[in-house]
Amino acid sequence: MNSAIILAAGKGARMKAELNKQYLVLKDKPIIAHTLTVFENCSLIDEIILVINPEEKEICKKRILERFKYKKITQLVSGGSERQESVHNGLNAVDQRAEIVLIHDGARPLVTSKIIERCVQGAKAYGAVSAGVPIKETIKIMTKDRFVQYTPKREDVWITQTPQAFRIDIIREAHDFAIRHEVLGTDDAMLVEHMGAKVKMVEGDYENLKITTPEDLIAAEAILGYKRRI
Ligand SMILES: Nc1ccn([C@@H]2O[C@H](COP(=O)(O)OP(=O)(O)OP(=O)(O)O)[C@@H](O)[C@H]2O)c(=O)n1
Ligand SMILES: C[C@](O)(CO)[C@H](O)COP(=O)(O)O
């Protein structure tokens, strides 16, 4: 059984909108509804745990759950103040029969079934995977006073995305390890790395962008418009 934890409990502060960005409309529906629709329609996903801000329960019910009637959402879970805590709460709600858990940012609405498929297959083969794409530009590692320290070889640098997918025992152990060692990660793969285990990168998509600032919304609208024409 494959479970997906979809994270929507952030503040969306960098979007500078009145509303949590998850509920902003992208083309024809809220951002989070795009994300949930992809997971709902993916045959590899058996259950969805939706993690939300408890203060947004009503808006989530009215604008998302009542309108779209997703059948695979088994639990609505309260998130925490950090992304990591939100994931941890989601992990506690996963069905006991789950073997593979996918963790995905609700703020990545352009995820596809193909990416989900590569993540599930990768997690079965390697235990821990992240979707990602090779960097297209040149990266500089900086000192605190903003001098260039060095330039890593471009072929060694990838951008990590979500979904990230794990065997359930591995991701539970990684979260417990992080709590014991006070590790706070910006993604879940990082917690597995801290534990000393390997994470395999599987092919994501440049279009699988994270909606973080207003210009990301413009880019996502353009990608959706372009997709509709082809
Ligand atoms: N405490 C948190 C923080 C983040 N997230 C989720 O994790 C994903 C990635 O986080 P990000 O894009 O940074 O979202 P926000 O934290 O909402 O944005 P910001 O940092 O601008 O406030 C988002 O889907 C967000 O809702 C979450 O569930 N719980
Ligand atoms: C998990 C993530 O989307 C991978 O790119 C990213 O690390 C989330 O970071 P944020 O600072 O919470 O936006």
From TrEMBL:
* Record-marked site positions (Positions MEP for the nucleophilic attack): R154, K210
Tell me the PROSITE patterns matching this sequence. ISPD
SUPFAM superfamilies (UniProt xref): Nucleotide-diphospho-sugar transferases
The protein's enzyme class: transferase
GO biological process annotations for this chain's record?
Answer: isopentenyl diphosphate biosynthetic process, methylerythritol 4-phosphate pathway
Q: Which reaction does it catalyse?
A: 2-C-methyl-D-erythritol 4-phosphate + CTP + H(+) = 4-CDP-2-C-methyl-D-erythritol + diphosphate
Q: Which UniProt keywords apply?
A: Isoprene biosynthesis, Nucleotidyltransferase, Transferase
Superkingdom of origin = Bacteria
Q: Which residues form the signal peptide?
A: none
A GO molecular function term, named singly, is: 2-C-methyl-D-erythritol 4-phosphate cytidylyltransferase activity
Q: Which CDD domains match?
A: CDP-ME_synthetase
The pathway is: Isoprenoid biosynthesis; isopentenyl diphosphate biosynthesis via DXP pathway; isopentenyl diphosphate from 1-deoxy-D-xylulose 5-phosphate: step 2/6
Stored InterPro entries: IspD, IspD/TarI, IspD/TarI_cytidylyltransf_bact, ISPD_synthase_CS, Nucleotide-diphossugar_trans
Pinpoint the site Transition state stabilizer.
Answer: R14, K21
Enzyme Commission code(s) on record: 2.7.7.60
> Record's family?
Belongs to the IspD/TarI cytidylyltransferase family. IspD subfamily.
UniProt xrefs under PANTHER family: 2-C-METHYL-D-ERYTHRITOL 4-PHOSPHATE CYTIDYLYLTRANSFERASE, CHLOROPLASTIC
Matching entries from HAMAP family are given as: IspD
The record's function comment reads: Catalyzes the formation of 4-diphosphocytidyl-2-C-methyl-D-erythritol from CTP and 2-C-methyl-D-erythritol 4-phosphate (MEP).
What protein name does the entry list?
A: 2-C-methyl-D-erythritol 4-phosphate cytidylyltransferase
